[in-house]
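Report of the visiting student (M.T.), summer placement. My assignment was to run the structure pipeline on a short list of targets and document each run. The first record concerns Acyltransferase.
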Amino acid sequence: MKSGKEIGGLAKLVLHAYVNEVCLDRSMKAKFLALDPMADALPQYKIMPLLSLCKRYGKPMLWLLSVLKFVILPVLVVAALVNLVMAFASVLPFWRRQVKDLPPLVCLPNTAHLKLFHYLFDDFDTRVKFECRRPWAMLRYLDARDYLRALLTVWRVIWYILLYQRHHGVRRQDLIFHAVDVLPFVCYSLFLIKLSEAGRQVVTDCNLQRWDYVATHLMADCSIIQHAYIHPDLDFSHTFGPVDCLFVFDQEFETVFSRYYQFKRTDIIRPKLTLADMGSDKQVLFLASSAPFLNTEIDFLERVKQKFDFFIVVKLHPRHVYDESVTRLVSLADCVAEPAVFPDCHLQVSYDSFLGYEYKALGKKVLFLKDECSVRRFMERP
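After the run finished, the structure tokens were exported:
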């Protein structure tokens, strides 16, 4: 373990992780929502879903956010007392698990989707341990002392947020909203400390977020799997810790990642997608949609349908909130793919979706709509 041994040090680390999360939201807001006046009225927290909700529900949603700004921290102060209950539970012999029983390399997925870990490990199914089954399983590896530390650390983080003065565009209200998961996040940090003390290594698919921020600072050996497109122009208030191995889909991302991480080595991930036949005699064009670029996607498909005769498949991003114009996009498609389906295609299209690099690695033709020159050449072809 490299830092965070004391309660104050760990609380500072957690606070810095939240500050960086606000920086990430602020960058996304400037990149995608700079011209939307309503975005300025919102906390810098999950800014795109919040904006969609505010446009849908109007002032009641803004009033709710104003109330939550004053309610969240008091609720967290009381909720943190659940750590006392967990401290008693941790002394029960049937409850406790030992870190020493975990494998030398521990996988820490960022979500319930384990696709990237299956790419990385051919034998991943045999590696599946607690961390892949349910998000709260790490609690069984903490002892009574850890839960007392968690209680005090949560309270210290809340205190630091109350004292926080606006800096580099990060406001106290932004941190308040990000702190809604401070209880599990502190437990996650304490679990990392125990892994580090036991000499374990971790690999995570979290990129540029709070989870890998604390992992790179608390673990002596932390590796990262690229899970999305990385923008080269993000600014963070606090530096991420060192990384052992960076797993990327294309070597072009090494330069981008080097802006944010110091890594000892890199390796290339080979995707193992199972592509589904769309059952059409026509060439298939598969568009992976992203809500912020909906108008660009609609314009592109309208031009494609005027000039070419593709079987068009559209897949909506499962975690994006779309506005009503998505019905226009869907109407341009011959088929709308389910979230779990990866269509076989002649051409894969997206604005800048990371899925494009996975299809590229499979030998498929790929077109990124952000590359206007490539789009122009495509549209000018006979």
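The longest helix spans residues 7-32. The chain has a mean pLDDT of 90. I thank the supervising group for their guidance throughout the placement.
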